[in-house]
C-alpha cells in the first residue's frame, strides 16, 4: 500500500489531496485503483511503451481483479497485490478498467479528435470510468444516476488536464482539441505549434473552460449520494482540480509556456467552500 500511496502522491498531488479525507481502508483502496490506472497511463506516455506492454498491463489488471497474481522474477507486482486486495473488499467493476484500456489504446494509436463528442468519449474512457471504480469504495445510493454524475466529474477533470497540458501534449505529438471547434474558432494546427496565445486561441480556451465548469456542476450533483467522508474527499479533489481552470485563466490561457497549477495552501483554502457546498446540497 505504501508503494501505491507514493505513486499517487508523486503523480497527482490533487488526487492525493482529496484521498486523504477517506477513512484508512477506503484510502488504501483508492490509492490501489489510482496506481493501477497510473501504470497503464505510464505505458502510453513513456518511451518504450506500446501495444504489447499495454496488453500485458490489461491482463495483469484482469488477473488482480479476479484474485490471481502474476509472478515475475521479483515476485508479484505491488500494484497488482494492492488492486487484488481492494477488489476483495469492494466491488470494483472490471468493465471500468476495460473502458480505460480502450481509452489508453486511443492514445497509443495517435487518435485525432474530429468532434467534441469524440473527445467526450475519450474523457469518459480514461477518467470518467474512474467514477465507477471509486463510487463502490465510497458507498453510494441513487443507482445509475449517481454513477453517471461520477462519470461526468471524471470527464471534467480529464478535460481540465487537457486544457492545462496543451503544450506538453504537443511535445508528445498529441492534439486533443477537437478539430471542429478549432475550425469554428479559427485555430489551426500550425498556430498551436507556434505556441502563441492569439485572440482566436483564447476564445477557444474560454469556450472549453466553460464546458469543463459545466461538467463539474453536473458531476457535483451526485456528491450528496456518496456515503460518509468519501463525500468530502471527492468534493475536495474536484474543487482543487477546478482550481486549475482558475490558474489557467490567471495565466491568460497560456498553456504553452506556463503550467496552470494550484498550490497546497490554495487547496486548503478551498476546503471550507467544498464543505459548505456539501452542507447546502
UniProtKB/TrEMBL annotation:
Alphabetized GO MF terms: geranylgeranyl diphosphate synthase activity; squalene synthase [NAD(P)H] activity
Pathways per UniProt: Carotenoid biosynthesis; phytoene biosynthesis
Pfam families: SQS_PSY
GO biological process terms on file: carotenoid biosynthetic process
Alphabetized CDD domains for the sequence: Trans_IPPS_HH
Record flagged with keyword Repeat: no
InterPro entries, alphabetized: Isoprenoid_synthase_dom_sf, Squ/phyt_synthse, Squalene/phytoene_synthase_CS, Trans_IPPS_bact-type, Trans_IPPS_HH
Source superkingdom: Bacteria
Family: Belongs to the phytoene/squalene synthase family.
PANTHER family: BIFUNCTIONAL LYCOPENE CYCLASE/PHYTOENE SYNTHASE
Name by which UniProt lists this protein: Phytoene/squalene synthase family protein
Native organism taxonomy: Bacteria, Thermotogati, Deinococcota, Deinococci, Deinococcales
Amino acid at each position: 500500500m505504501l508503494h501505491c500511496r507514493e505513486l499517487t502522491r508523486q503523480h497527482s498531488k490533487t488526487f492525493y489531496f482529496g484521498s486523504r479525507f477517506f477513512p484508512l481502508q477506503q484510502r488504501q483502496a483508492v490509492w490501489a485503483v489510482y496506481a493501477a490506472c497510473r501504470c497503464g497511463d505510464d505505458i502510453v506516455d513513456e518511451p518504450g511503451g506500446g501495444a504489447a506492454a499495454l496488453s500485458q498491463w490489461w491482463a495483469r489488471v484482469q488477473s488482480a481483479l479476479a484474485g490471481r497474481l502474476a509472478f515475475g522474477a521479483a515476485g508479484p507486482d505491488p500494484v497488482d497485490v494492492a488492486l487484488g486486495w481492494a477488489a476483495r473488499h469492494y466491488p470494483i467493476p472490471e468493465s471500468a478498467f476495460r473502458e480505460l484500456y480502450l481509452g489508453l489504446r486511443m492514445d497509443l494509436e495517435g487518435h485525432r479528435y474530429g468532434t467534441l463528442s469524440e473527445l467526450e468519449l475519450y474523457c469518459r474512457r480514461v477518467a470518467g470510468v474512474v467514477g465507477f471504480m471509486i463510487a463502490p469504495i465510497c458507498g453510494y445510493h441513487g443507482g445509475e444516476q449517481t454513477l453517471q454524475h461520477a462519470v461526468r466529474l471524471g470527464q471534467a477533470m480529464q478535460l481540465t488536464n487537457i486544457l492545462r497540458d496543451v503544450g506538453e501534449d504537443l511535445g508528445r505529438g498529441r492534439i486533443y482539441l477537437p478539430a471542429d471547434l478549432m475550425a469554428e474558432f479559427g485555430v489551426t494546427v500550425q498556430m498551436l505549434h507556434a505556441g502563441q496565445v492569439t485572440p482566436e486561441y483564447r476564445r477557444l480556451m474560454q469556450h472549453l473552460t466553460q464546458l469543463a465548469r459545466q461538467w463539474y456542476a453536473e458531476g457535483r450533483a451526485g456528491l450528496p449520494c456518496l456515503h460518509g467522508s468519501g463525500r468530502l474527499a471527492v468534493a475536495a479533489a474536484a474543487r482543487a482540480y477546478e482550481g486549475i481552470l482558475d490558474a489557467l485563466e490567471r495565466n491568460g490561457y497560456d498553456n504553452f509556456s506556463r503550467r496552470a497549477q494550484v498550490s497546497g495552501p490554495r487547496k486548503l483554502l478551498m476546503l471550507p467552500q467544498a464543505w459548505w457546498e456539501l452542507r447546502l446540497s
